[in-house]
């Protein structure tokens, strides 16, 4: 799979961009030329020899803040995406295979999570578990997980009702075998797309929680936080939001590119599933002699 | 795999029937609105025998097949597969039984019964790997089996999408047979194919029968399985209304539904008078 | 009462043209259909004439060009295909001269069709009766109440057991056989002279298939409806048709009276089709059964 993704130009570009960002996240804090928290008199300065990207409203070096904030930002949004994946996709797959009780419970749970007001829930959990980035990201991940639950469940349902899965069952395959051999490859593409989306959403959520003082505490920099504070001084430094915005966009774009590449190489079944999701929005044409798409909806 | 299950298979011996269904009732639907799908079905298949199971949509023929495969639970009666009473089997026992490869199934639509992302080799080795056969040996056995369904070795690396309909169905047949099952259930195995391939598959199945495997052909059309079946069993509204040798059933049908089936089967030389007879039979069945 | 087909069976005219006095309602002369983009010819010369009350059958695999031939006669060829040669006349009018408005007037009232998958031709959210009434009103300009009455009458004509009940049902409440009858009812709503049945019974159980074929035969005798029956199974065609064309890869490999083609097939492919029935079908038991 990895080799096939890298055979595509888009796959290589995505991998390259994501590698650079991963390196930033790993080594960013050490690469920062100045103390990211040191304030100075030279506020809202333009780019110069000492401050390559200028300074912010407290005179802090923007480049250093970006580099220093990269680890928290990237790790934060990854944490959101992975939590959502584990809390959503896994029950989504198993809800099809593990009998009615599990199916019913997880479906109701997913509905409940969608209905919960996000901020209220975040505040409540932080009050219970204490404030911290990990707690905040866990909360966010759990709240985003219904997306993964639905996507995984819909994709698995379509595969589980297929004859080749039944043929495998008749040959004595266990649930684990079926998921590994027949289900996983087909639900990976839609899940990869959802994951890429979630990574993008993760940046925004990390920053919006910063506003509330949840997760990252204010002096510590994050990409989303930088973007938010720069937007407040748009009249003084109109070009300032470009740098953090560019980083966020590049990450999200590369994730989406990677998701597309994964979809393209994962065989016709994966493509059909994705096309199917798009096509179902349109109503079937009355005179169209083509057979109606197989019922694959996850919602009941 | 442990040595345990293999012993039971030998105990059954080749002499007893590979399938014995007696007094089988199957119900569908929620508890307060249960509808019978099968009522008191008795059917037995001897080793190497070919039985045609005939019935229309909703007659229960697929339910019967699925019950034998353990995909549907019986509400009464018993099912004995290869000498083993499977009526009360739980999921674990079923899996053990299936992994021995005693019963296999061939679906009607070869396009959907093969995983589109798996190569022919992967599809063919799957049942063997599930039996616990090592990967190399499984690949070797799959390769060795191909000539029996008249497929070329170079197809092993292909995906189902790169094969013709006839080739796909031969792969599906090969997958069902590669474990050397004693009973194969085939659900309309040729109806989705063109004439030349249909004849070819039927030839392959005929050879198979000669090698001692029992076959159950499921079809809505008595005509399409008459030529390959030793015996036929006719299902009508969940009940077995007629069983007998194909010759007897075709020439001396007793139940009006069987008579209608025979009268309806597309034949090349039908007499116009059949029309009135069919009409009379339909009226009779309606009451 | 003997059927028309029975009366025709002993005739062994080698040619295709029926010498019935009535002029043909549909005639195809050396029709060729090709790919619009390239040089690929998919149908290479199909000719037949269809007189009122007669039935012609086209036998062939999927991809043999039988469906394209029908679609050409109905003027509904897919966008990238076109008739590249020959002529098609419906009721004496060359279809090449028809404009869209005249085509609309012709379809339904003169030529009509039913296809394999009835469910996809009905709107799932409208009761079937209303859909038939719509066809009736569009073609005959009847008022709502008359259209309702006529729709029920049509459902009775196609031998649905409870026409009023079917009239008020949604497509998903009906079986495949019932849906196909509904479609036939809609197809004959405006009293066409030709009905094209393209694999119309293929997906149905044999008993239902026989019922529909019987109904079509009866319709043909009673109203003089001319039929074009398309199937992959020669037996289906044999039950209904006076004349058979066997199509293979776009070419007519055999053509003649049904009886002659079945008893004395000349082409290898026709022999294969017949051999399959005699070897594996019921025919084998019937013949050996009589012997013993």
Describe this structure in words.
The complex is a heterotrimer of chains A (300), B (287) and C (292). With 300 residues, chain A is mostly helical. Helix content of chain A is 71%, strand content 0%. Chain A has one domain (2-33, 54-278): MetI-like (MetI-like fold, Orthogonal Bundle), CATH 1.10.3720.10. Chain A contains eleven helices and no strands. The radius of gyration of chain A is 22 Å and the shape is elongated. The model of chain A is unreliable at 269-300 (pLDDT under 50). With 287 residues, chain B is of the alpha/beta class. Chain B is 39% helix and 22% strand. Chain B has helices spanning 4-12, 61-68, 91-99, 120-131, 135-145, 165-177, 195-210, 222-226, 246-251, 256-264, 274-286, and strands spanning 19-28, 35-45, 50-54, 76-81, 84-85, 103-106, 183-187, 214-219, 231-236, 239-245. In chain B, helix 4 (120-131) packs across helix 5. In chain C, 41% of the residues lie in helices and 22% in strands. Chain C has a six-stranded mixed beta sheet, sandwiched between helices. In chain C, helix 8 links the parallel strand 7 and strand 8 (226-231). Residues 1-18 and 288-292 of chain C have low confidence and may be disordered. The interface between B and C is large, with 37 and 43 residues.
């Amino acid at each position: 799979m990895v080799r096939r993704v890298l055979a595509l130009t888009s796959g290589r570009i995505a991998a390259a961009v994501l590698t650079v960002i991963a390196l930033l996240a790993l080594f960013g804090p050490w690469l920062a030329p100045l103390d990211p928290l040191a304030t100075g008199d030279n506020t809202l300065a333009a780019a110069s020899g000492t401050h390559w990207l200028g300074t912010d409203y407290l005179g802090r070096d923007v480049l250093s803040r970006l580099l220093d904030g990269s680890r928290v930002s990237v790790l934060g949004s990854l944490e959101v995406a992975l939590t959502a994946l584990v809390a959503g996709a896994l029950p989504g797959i198993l809800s099809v295979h593990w009998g009615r009780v599990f199916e019913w419970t997880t479906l109701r749970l997913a509905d409940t999570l969608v209905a919960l007001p996000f901020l209220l829930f975040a505040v409540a959990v932080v009050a219970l578990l204490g404030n911290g980035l990990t707690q905040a990201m866990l909360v966010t991940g759990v709240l985003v997980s219904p997306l993964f639950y639905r996507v995984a469940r819909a994709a698995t349902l379509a595969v589980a009702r297929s004859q080749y899965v039944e043929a495998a069952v008749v040959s004595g395959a266990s649930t684990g075998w079926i998921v590994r051999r027949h289900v996983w490859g087909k639900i990976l593409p839609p899940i990869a797309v959802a994951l890429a989306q979630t990574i993008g959403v993760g940046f925004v959520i990390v920053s919006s929680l910063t506003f509330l003082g949840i997760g990252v505490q204010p002096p510590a920099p994050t990409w989303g936080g930088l973007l938010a504070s720069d937007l407040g001084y748009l009249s003084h430094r109109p070009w300032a939001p470009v740098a953090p915005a560019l980083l966020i966009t590049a990450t999200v774009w590369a994730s989406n590119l990677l998701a597309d590449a994964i979809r393209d190489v994962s065989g016709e079944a994966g493509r059909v599933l994705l096309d199917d999701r798009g096509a179902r929005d349109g109503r079937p044409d009355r005179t169209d002699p083509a057979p109606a798409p197989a019922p694959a909806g996850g919602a009941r | 795999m442990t040595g345990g299950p293999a012993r039971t298979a030998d105990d059954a011996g080749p002499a007893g029937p590979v399938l014995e269904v007696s007094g089988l009732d199957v119900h569908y639907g929620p508890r307060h609105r249960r509808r019978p799908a099968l009522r008191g079905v008795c059917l037995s298949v001897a080793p190497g025998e070919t039985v045609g199971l005939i019935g229309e949509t909703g007659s229960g023929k697929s339910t019967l097949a699925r019950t034998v495969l353990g995909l549907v639970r019986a509400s009464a009666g018993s099912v004995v597969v290869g000498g083993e009473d499977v009526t009360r089997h739980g999921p674990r026992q079923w899996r053990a039984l299936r992994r021995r490869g005693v019963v296999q199934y061939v679906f009607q639509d070869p396009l959907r019964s093969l995983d589109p992302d798996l190569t022919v080799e992967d599809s063919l080795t799957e049942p063997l790997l599930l039996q616990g056969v090592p990967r190399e040996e499984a690949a070797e056995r799959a390769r060795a089996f191909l000539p029996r369904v008249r497929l070329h070795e170079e197809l092993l690396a292909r995906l189902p999408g790169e094969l013709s309909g006839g080739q796909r169905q031969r792969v599906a047949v090969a997958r069902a047979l590669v474990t050397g099952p004693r009973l194969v259930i085939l659900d309309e195995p040729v109806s989705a194919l063109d004439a030349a391939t249909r004849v070819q598959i039927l030839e392959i199945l005929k050879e198979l029968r000669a090698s001692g495997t029992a076959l159950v052909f499921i079809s809505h059309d008595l005509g399409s399985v008459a030529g390959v079946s030793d015996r036929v069993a006719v299902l009508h509204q969940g009940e077995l209304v007629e069983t007998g040798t194909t010759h007897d059933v075709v020439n001396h049908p007793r139940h009006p539904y069987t008579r209608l089936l025979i009268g309806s089967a597309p034949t090349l030389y039908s007499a116009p008078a059949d029309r009135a007879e069919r009409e009379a039979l339909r009226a009779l069945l309606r009451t | 009462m003997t059927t028309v087909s029975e009366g025709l069976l002993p005739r062994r005219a080698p040619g295709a043209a029926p010498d019935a006095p009535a002029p043909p309602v549909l005639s195809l002369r050396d029709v060729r259909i090709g790919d619009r983009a390239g040089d690929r010819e998919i149908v290479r010369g199909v000719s037949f004439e269809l007189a009122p009350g007669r039935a012609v059958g086209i036998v062939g695999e999927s991809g043999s060009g039988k469906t394209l031939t029908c679609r050409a006669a109905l003027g509904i060829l897919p966008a990238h295909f076109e008739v590249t040669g020959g002529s098609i006349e419906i009721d004496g009018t060359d279809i090449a001269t028809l404009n869209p408005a005249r085509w609309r007037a012709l379809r339904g009232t003169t030529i009509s069709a039913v296809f394999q998958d009835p469910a996809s031709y009905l709107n799932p959210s409208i009761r079937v009766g209303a859909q038939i009434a719509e066809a009736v009103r569009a073609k005959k300009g009847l008022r709502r109440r008359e259209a309702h009455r006529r729709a029920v009458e049509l459902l009775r004509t196609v031998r649905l057991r409870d026409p009023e009940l079917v009239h008020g049902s949604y497509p998903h409440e009906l079986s495949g056989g019932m849906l196909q009858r509904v479609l036939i009812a809609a197809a004959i709503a405006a009293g066409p002279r030709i009905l094209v049945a393209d694999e119309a019974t293929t997906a149905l159980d044999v008993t239902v298939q026989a019922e529909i074929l019987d109904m079509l035969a009866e319709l043909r005798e009673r109203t003089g409806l001319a039929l074009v029956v398309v199937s992959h199974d020669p037996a289906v065609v044999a039950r209904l048709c006076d004349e058979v064309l066997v199509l293979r890869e776009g070419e007519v490999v055999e053509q003649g009276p049904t009886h002659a083609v079945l008893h004395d097939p000349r082409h290898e492919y026709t022999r294969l089709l017949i051999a399959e029935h005699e070897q594996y079908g019921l025919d084998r038991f019937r013949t050996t059964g009589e012997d013993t």
